[in-house]
Design brief:
By secondary structure, this protein is mainly α. It has a single domain, classed as 3-Layer(bab) Sandwich (minor pseudopilin epsh fold). It has ten helices and five strands. Strand 3 and strand 4 form a beta hairpin. Helix 3 packs antiparallel against helix 5. The chain binds fe (ii) ion (FE2). The site of fe (ii) ion has 7 residues, from helix 3.
């Protein structure tokens, strides 16, 4: 492997790991034998694939907001089912399918970086686990309606302004055929890039065409909006901007750059 390849891989690894620190400490437990209720950020990079699990929803809502806090833009019932059923299923499937395998001992991001080597079932479920982990953190009601600081500057420089960026990102989500995601990522050169992926693929996977460290994600699977919006995905995408947690997106952007 060349120095350039090593450097690039290291960038993705560092940036990916640092970007998960907040959500992991607030929402997820790590390791059935661990006495700690959270995953220390520095441990995520060495965490085994099969050691991630969701906090039981029945005991306490582990999301950093109540299910109904995103209303009227995303309804409480959708949030509840999305988290406690869909995300829980991806996590369970990821754990069960990887147990007793060689790759169960591999860090999640190393698996993503070698995704083509692994079964599609693992790709779908490990992707579903991580993508939702990211998605929950970049949602919040009343945390600010626009990016600030260096992220705002980068969006202006790259896309020609926040409205043009929203149009580009929104179109990526609206036109993604079938189930998938829209992304804003930081690529290996530190540049912002908008993309979309099918299914539960993400820009960290070696199998994905447009790669980067994702800092903003939009779930456009029907399970994310159908109860409230039915077939009106464009309306859901437009409402998404009302609940973006730009502070978290900015934090992820800064960490992605710092890890470069
Ligand atoms: Fe989803």
């Amino acid at each position: 492997m060349s120095i350039k390849q090593n450097s690039r891989r290291d960038f993705f690894k560092k940036a990916s790991l640092s970007g998960l620190a907040v959500v992991v400490s607030s929402a997820f437990t790590f390791g059935s034998k661990s006495k700690s209720p959270t995953i220390p950020a520095e441990n995520l990079g060495i965490a085994k694939l099969g050691d991630f699990k969701l906090t039981p929803q029945s005991k306490q809502n582990p999301l950093p907001y109540a299910y109904g806090d995103l209303e009227p833009y995303i309804d409480a019932r959708t949030m509840e089912i999305h988290y406690s059923k869909h995300h829980a299923a991806y996590t369970k499937n990821m754990n069960e399918s990887s147990s007793s395998t060689d790759y169960a001992a591999k860090p999640l991001f190393e698996v993503f970086a070698e995704m083509g080597k692994y079964p599609v079932f693992l790709k779908n479920n490990a992707g579903g686990f991580y993508n939702h982990l990211l998605f929950w953190t970049i949602l919040s009601h009343g945390t600010g309606q626009a990016p600030e600081g260096r992220l705002a500057t980068a969006i202006n420089d790259t896309f020609g302004g926040i409205e043009k960026f929203k149009e580009l990102f929104g179109t990526a989500g609206k036109k993604q055929f079938g189930s998938g995601w829209a992304w804003l990522s930081v690529d290996a050169k530190g540049k912002l890039v908008v993309s979309s992926t099918a299914n539960q693929d993400n820009p960290l996977m070696s199998t994905t065409e447009i790669k980067g460290v994702p800092i903003l994600a939009l779930d456009v699977w029907e399970h994310a909006y159908y109860l409230q919006y039915q077939n009106r995905r464009p309306d859901y995408v437009d409402s998404f901007w009302k609940v973006v947690n730009w502070k978290e997106v900015s934090r992820r952007y800064e960490e992605a750059l710092a890890a470069k």
